[in-house]
Structure formats: structure tokens, C-alpha cells
Write a structure and sequence with these properties.
Layout (H helix, E strand, L loop, with lengths): L3 E5 H9 L9 E5 L27 E7 L3 H16 L3 E7 L2 H10 L9 E5 L3 H6 L9 H7 L2 H5 L2 E2 L2 E2 L2 E6 L2 E5 L12 H14 L4 E4 L5 H4 L22 H12 L13 H9 L3 E6 L4 H6 L4 E4 L13 E10 L6 H10 L3 H11 L2 E2 L4 E2 L2 H10 L2 E3 L6 H16 L4 H14 L39
């Protein structure tokens, strides 16, 4: 009998935002084959799409999106949109969405100015404060089309910005030609041992890789005891024992990484994996299409735990949205296309092309996507407040300091200070934690811990 898992939008909200389990109605249905239980859905269909009164002039809307799967999705969705509006063409230009906000804020880019662009939800406050995006048009339809978790992440106060297109997190990709399903290390200690021994059996190859120069992935090491790096405007999880131990753990993997690991882009890490030079790497669902196109036989597994029998490390999760640039000359047409992306067929198309978790209420019968949902149960969502600008702004500096062997306690204290004040001046180094290599260290007292990993803030 097919395994059927029904995940309500409120449970998905628990995974992403630890919201209440009450007052939720829509469902995502995960199934191994076509014999799934039908559930009612409010997500509108393209066949029900009501053509809007848009311009009759021939125009082209430029969309910035990530390379590979997301850009391919925009291209195909654009062709469908043009079937409805023959005078409106969609042109996609590939970019790194992590830098899109800064490119638009500074005006320093080589691409054609966009009408719409993709971006993660945690940049929302920065984009609004920089006045580069427009509020959501017809948000009633958008919120009807999408899961509450997805659209709630795009609200600042009572105003919604953007159109949710997917929910995302990261997990382990593994090359089945190099490691069997049942041999994936399930604790960080085992993964470290695997990383050390793998090149002894396979010279010049790597057992385990993750992009070291970004806090997005590095954060997973600092989540023991449900520690979360950003929880609110006032609370970070950086001044904690879990963060100190995790940062040191991340450093332990460096001897088994490429020599230039701190300078490598995500694409360079991906190429190592695709070319059979690494057995396991950490990545998100956006990488699925690239791995499939390369003909890889790969699997997805949850992140390792911190102890035998423990829960997997927490991954970061988020909502990717499509935003209308405030300098567009065609705001109504751009909004219409963004809303079109939330329809049932376009969400199904995105799932098929990218493997990303849908932002709308659709059925999912993809085992790879189901594996990401397994990890999503052990994830937490970053807030979308204004401090995220400092969180990301200093993150690369923090990663470089870890890579260069700076004292972990000092590096974390500077990072925490910068997030809260925008400066590292006058930072106070946190006490050292007790560990095997530092037997005279001082354990951090409870009152020095600024992160609260209680029930309200922990991912379940």
C-alpha cells in the first residue's frame, strides 16, 4: 500500500515558524504513487484564471532568478503566461538571488533592470526599508492560493509584499556510486570520522563537503539543543554553549576540505560533487535539477545528529518569493505574472523542475521532495526583521574568521555585537566552554546566555 502522508499547512508552519497548530485548513499531500487521498484545495487553476485588463502594448517583463531550475521554471511559466497575453513576453536573466537586494539597492549590476526578481523572505525588511519593492497586488487571491506559512512570511505589519513561490531548506545529497543508502553517517562524530578516512580509500576525493564561507550552511553545526541563531529583534543564539561547540566542530572538518575552501563558490562545491570528487554534500532542492541533468544517481538524507539516537541538526528554512521592483514601468503586468506563478499548474511545474517544496496546496509524489520534507521537520525559519541586514552583512566575515582559526568565543561575540549594533566596537568576549582540549575553560553561566531555546522557539 502506498505510504500516504498528509501535512497540513499549520504543521508546515510549525516546521518553518513554530506557529500554533490551530485554525489551519489547507493540506499538502505526499504520496509514493497516484493512489493518494484527495483533499479540498482553494488554490486556483490556470484553467480558472481570470484574464485581467492589462496593457495592449507589446512589452517584455524581465525577471531575475537563480540559474538552473528556478530560471528554467520562469522561462516555461512565462511561455504559458504569453499564451494568455500574447503581447507580454517574459525574459529571464540568471543571477545569484543572495546578492540581488544589494545589486538593486546600489544600482551596481550588469543585467537588464528587472520588473520582478526572486528573493528569500528574510530580506523583506531590508527591501522595504530600501524602497525597492511594491506591496502585493490582489493579496486576497494570493493568500487564497498559497499556504499560510508561505504568505505569512511576506507580511510586515499589515502589509504584504511579494508572491510566495516555494518553501526551502537544505539536507544531505549523497552519491550512490560512492556510498550506500544505509552507510550515511548519522552523527557529526561519525561524519568527521568518515571525512578523515574517505580519502585514504579514495585519494584526492572528499567524503563530506558544505560551503564553508556562508552562515547559511555553517549554522547547522550550532543548533544542538534546538539553538537558533536568530530568534527576534533582541535575541540571537550566538552567545551560547551550542554555538561555541558547533563553530569548533565546523572547524574540525577543514583539514578534509579543499585548500581554498573559504574562497569557493557554491557552484564550485557542486561541481566537485557532480564530477564524483565528493561522496556527500549539503545543498538545497534548487540543486536537484542540476544533479539530474548531470545524470547522477543520488539520494537525500537528513542532517547528522549531535549524538547517537538524537534528532538531526536543524537546517535553516525559508520562503522564496517573487517581488515586483518599484522602478518597473509595468507594475500591473508584473504583479499579474507574479500572481500567475502561485496557480496550481505553475506550482506543480516548479515542483517538477526544481524539486522545491511548494508554496501552494498541491499534491506531491516525488520521493526526493519527500526527503526534504523529512528534514524540514527539523528546521527553523529566520525572521524577516531589520536586524537580518547585519546578520547577513557580517556573516562572511565571521566564516572567514573561523576558517583562519580565530578564537571561536571572540568571533561569536563580535558577530553578536555587530548584529545588534552594526559595529564590533567594545564587544565583550564570552567565557570559554569546557571541552576535552580546554579542561580549564569556564562554562557559560545561565545568565550569560541570551538565547532562549524553550518550547515556543524550538522546531519540532
Amino acid at each position: 500500500m502506498a505510504r500516504i502522508r498528509k501535512i497540513t499547512s499549520c504543521i508546515l508552519a510549525t516546521f518553518l515558524c513554530t506557529l500554533s497548530l490551530t485554525a489551519c485548513t489547507s493540506h499538502i499531500i505526499i504520496t509514493d504513487d497516484d493512489s493518494h487521498t484527495e483533499e479540498s484545495s482553494n488554490t486556483s487553476s490556470v484553467t480558472e484564471y481570470q484574464k485581467e485588463d492589462l496593457t495592449k502594448e507589446t512589452i517584455t517583463l524581465v525577471v531575475w532568478e537563480s540559474a538552473d531550475g528556478p530560471s528554467k521554471w520562469i522561462k516555461q511559466a512565462g511561455e504559458k503566461f504569453t499564451e494568455i497575453y500574447p503581447n507580454i513576453k517574459i525574459e529571464v536573466q540568471e543571477t545569484d538571488i543572495a546578492n540581488t537586494f544589494y545589486m538593486l539597492r546600489t544600482g551596481e549590476y550588469d543585467l537588464t533592470q528587472p520588473d520582478l526578481f526572486g528573493a528569500p523572505h528574510d530580506r523583506l525588511a531590508q527591501m522595504v526599508e530600501s524602497d525597492i519593492i511594491l506591496p502585493t497586488k490582489d493579496y486576497e487571491t494570493v493568500t487564497t492560493n498559497t499556504l499560510s506559512t508561505a504568505y505569512s512570511s511576506l507580511f510586515l505589519g499589515d502589509t504584504m509584499y511579494g508572491y510566495p513561490t516555494s518553501c526551502e531548506t537544505f539536507a544531505l545529497f549523497y552519491n550512490k556510486k560512492m556510498i550506500h543508502d544505509g552507510d550515511i553517517p548519522d552523527t557529526w562524530e561519525k561524519m568527521l570520522s568518515f571525512s578523515e578516512n574517505f580519502p585514504k580509500l579514495f585519494p584526492n576525493k572528499y567524503g563530506f563537503l558544505f560551503q564553508f564561507n556562508t552562515i547559511y550552511y555553517l549554522s547547522m553545526f550550532m543548533t544542538e539543543d534546538n539553538n537558533q541563531l536568530m530568534q527576534s529583534e533582541e535575541i540571537t543564539g550566538l552567545m551560547t554553549n551550542s554555538a561555541v561547540k558547533g563553530a569548533r566542530l565546523a572547524q574540525e572538518f577543514l583539514p578534509f576540505f579543499p585548500e581554498n575552501a573559504a574562497k569557493m563558490t557554491l557552484a564550485e562545491y557542486e561541481d566537485l560533487f557532480i564530477n564524483g570528487e565528493a561522496a556527500i554534500m549539503v545543498n538545497g532542492p534548487w540543486f536537484i535539477s542540476k544533479a539530474e541533468e548531470a545524470g547522477m544517481d543520488f539520494g537525500i538524507a537528513k542532517l547528522p545528529a549531535f549524538s547517537d539516537g538524537g534528532s538531526p541538526a536543524l537546517s535553516l528554512s525559508g520562503v522564496r518569493g517573487m517581488f515586483v521592483y518599484n522602478k518597473t514601468k509595468h507594475p500591473d503586468e508584473a504583479a499579474a505574472f507574479a500572481k500567475f506563478l502561485t496557480t496550481k499548474e505553475m506550482q506543480e511545474l516548479r515542483l517538477k523542475i526544481t524539486g522545491a517544496l511548494p508554496a501552494s496546496n498541491i499534491s506531491v509524489d516525488n520521493k526526493i521532495t519527500s526527503a526534504f520534507i523529512d528534514q524540514l521537520a527539523y528546521s527553523y525559519s529566520l525572521p524577516n526583521n531589520s536586524l537580518m541586514q547585519n546578520f547577513w552583512g557580517y556573516s562572511q566575515q565571521f566564516c572567514e574568521e573561523l576558517y583562519n582559526g580565530e578564537d571561536v568565543n571572540t568571533a561569536l561575540a563580535k558577530y553578536d555585537q555587530y548584529i545588534k549594533t552594526g559595529s564590533t566596537d567594545g564587544f565583550v568576549a564570552i567565557p570559554k566552554t569546557v571541552n576535552e582540549t580546554d579542561p580549564v575553560g569556564i562554562e557559560i553561566p545561565d545568565e550569560a546566555i541570551t538565547s532562549d531555546s524553550g518550547e515556543e522557539n524550538s522546531a519540532e
